[in-house]
Design brief:
With 346 residues, this protein is α+β, with helices and mostly antiparallel strands. It is 51% helix and 7% strand. It is elongated and about 70 Å long. 35% of the residues are buried.
Length: 346
């Protein structure tokens, strides 16, 4: 007799952000009973599994997968206020996304990974690393027009999910596939800075021993801003900085006004008083919530190509593909379908 996977039940709860007590109340069971099921002490009968399935909005098959739940590990960019409960939800979402990706990988050839490794202590600063990567990837001088495509063309997978307070997360699937998760709700400029930031983590911090006194987030940020806006290109334009000039620079570099102001301060192009005055201006104009100047949005391509291949080339319907991924059709549509994905003709 097939048994419910207790670890997956807990994972499903974390994804839906529901406590054990609330789920027990929802399905009309004692919390102690649910606790014993999650600990593997008590086996759930099909009636309870069916109730759990409805309450958590996962197909019954999801709970019978023979998988070991190993939450993804890596580096992330998040709000300081993010709760432990929310982080568990994001990690659970990414764990399931990893299962989906690897289950579909058999039919797909990924681009060859061309990503250097970098040890800051031996090879140089994060900014030097970014300069090296521009040479390594033969990036032309000036703006990177589509950073997502550039990263994916070099074998790093980008997956956009609906995260609340998490901007990005970098990890490896199967120990050898570099992956960047990004919050699909970010503004285009924040999205670009986030994937550049996570790329910095992948290159500089995985596989290297790092001491606890190093600020890895600041190192990743230093890498990201140099990659997007090379100092030797931008420095001449940061003299006598104004909000209007920063807006013009944003329109070209596809980097936020706030990030450009911070960078001008880092490079010593503004005095402390000027920096504080400009930050006050940004606040009074409402730019901390929404900046002017619209820049193009970027969309991950690899995961979309995989889904398109299944739905068109391999002849799957969205119902069949959702079934293989053990999620409902509405959830499959929410996570994976949009206007750029080609559906099988019916």
């Amino acid at each position: 007799m097939q048994k419910l996977n207790a670890e997956i039940l807990k994972l499903a709860r974390e994804v839906r952000l529901i406590t054990q007590e609330d789920l027990a109340n929802e399905i009309g069971a004692e919390q102690g009973t649910l606790s014993k099921i999650e600990k593997g002490i008590l086996q759930a009968d099909i009636k309870i599994v069916d109730s759990i399935s409805k309450a958590l909005d996962f197909p019954v098959s999801f709970f019978y997968q023979e998988k070991k739940v190993l939450p993804v590990e890596g580096h992330y960019r998040r709000k300081i206020s993010t709760s432990v409960k929310k982080m568990k939800q994001y990690l659970a979402q990414m764990t399931i996304a990893e299962w989906h990706f690897l289950s579909m990988l058999d039919e797909i050839d990924l681009p060859e990974t061309k990503m250097p490794t970098w040890d800051i202590l031996e090879d140089g600063s994060p900014a030097i690393c970014a300069k090296y990567l521009r040479d390594y990837w033969r990036i032309p001088k000036g703006r990177i027009t589509n950073l997502t495509k550039l990263i994916e063309d070099n074998g790093i997978v980008i997956i956009a999910l609906d995260f609340g307070e998490l901007d990005g997360f970098s990890t490896y699937f199967n120990g050898n596939i570099p992956v960047i998760f990004v919050n699909k709700n970010l503004s285009p400029d924040r999205y670009r800075l986030t994937i550049a930031h996570e790329l910095g983590h992948l290159i500089m911090h995985f596989g290297n021993k790092v001491s606890s006194d190093r600020d890895l987030e600041n190192e990743a940020y230093e890498f990201a801003i140099e990659l997007l806006v090379p100092e030797n290109n931008i420095r001449p334009y940061l003299s006598k900085v104004t909000i209007e000039k920063l807006a013009d620079l944003k329109a070209y570099w596809y980097v936020s006004i706030a990030a450009l102001l911070r960078y001008s301060n880092t490079l010593g192009m503004v005095t402390g008083n000027q920096y504080r005055y400009l930050w006050t201006q940004i606040g009074s104009l409402g730019y901390r919530k929404k900046e002017p100047v619209t820049i193009p949005s970027e969309t991950p391509g690899i995961i979309n190509e995989i889904i398109s291949s299944y739905l068109s080339d391999l002849g799957y319907t969205k119902e069949e593909l959702a079934l293989t991924l053990h999620i409902s059709v509405p959830e499959f549509e929410r996570i994976y379908l949009h206007s750029k994905v080609k559906l099988k003709a019916v």
